[in-house]
Amino acid sequence: MKRVSLLISTILVIGIVIIFLFIPIFKVFSFTETRTNNPQLYYINVSNETSFQFRFTHSIHRTDVLENYKITNSNKLKLVSMEYEDVSIGMPAYAEEGQSITYENGKYKLYFEEKIIDNFTLYVGDVDYDLFILYDGKEYNLKQSLKRGNSYLFEVTTVSLYDKLKGVLLGYER
Question: How far is CA 29 from CA 14, 46, 139, 167, in A?
Answer without folding.
Answer: 29, 6, 14, 12
